[in-house]
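Lecture notes, continued. The same structure-token format from the folding unit now serves as the input rather than the output. Read the line below as a description of shape only.
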């Protein structure tokens, strides 16, 4: 899960984080996320834990020292750097889902999406478009595609839904598209 360390300005973002955390827990789907107790990250983790779910946080030591680590997780893995955090999250995750967030959320999303494009993994990448939050980004992505910088097949690697009820079945049924011959298939 990727999401903001801030709650954002629209209360629907927090409500979505609460709903996603509780829903995933009820369905027996564990959460791997950045390990924080603040913002949407904290809301997501708290809701999942309250519903009896497993929540694994991965956080760099520097953020633990700032007292941002969630104290009640199922497991907290402390790593040295942000690079190690992302690598471990990738290794632990079966799919990637982004809720509203800022610079870090975008960076994490684009990294796993580009890894999928390059064949480094075959896991689904998705956006939950809460209250139209991702629409400006999607307009930019469409512009990039029209300008020839994103192939249609690569755009298809990013699932987008406004409702978790529609998104979860797509994540479960995910089959990566055929890759061009110059991209080796990801080891699974």
């Amino acid at each position: 899960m990727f999401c903001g360390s801030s709650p954002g300005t629209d209360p629907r973002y927090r409500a979505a984080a609460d709903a996603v955390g509780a829903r995933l827990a009820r369905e027996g789907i564990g959460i791997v996320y950045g390990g924080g107790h603040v913002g949407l990250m904290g809301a997501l983790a708290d809701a999942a834990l309250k519903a009896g779910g497993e929540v694994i946080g991965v956080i760099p030591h520097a953020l633990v020292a700032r007292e941002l680590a969630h104290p009640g997780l199922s497991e907290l893995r402390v790593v040295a750097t942000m690079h190690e955090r992302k690598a471990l999250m990738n290794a632990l995750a079966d799919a990637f889902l982004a809720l509203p967030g800022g610079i870090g959320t975008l960076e994490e999303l684009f990294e796993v999406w580009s890894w999928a494009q390059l064949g480094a993994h075959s896991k689904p990448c998705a956006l939950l478009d809460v209250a139209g939050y991702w629409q400006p980004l999607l307009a930019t992505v469409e512009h990039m595609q029209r300008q020839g910088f994103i192939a249609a097949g690569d755009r298809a690697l990013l699932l987008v839904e406004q409702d978790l009820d529609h998104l979860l079945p797509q994540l479960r049924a995910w089959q990566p598209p055929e890759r061009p011959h110059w991209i080796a298939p990801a080891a699974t």
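Point for the exam: The chain has eight helices and six strands.
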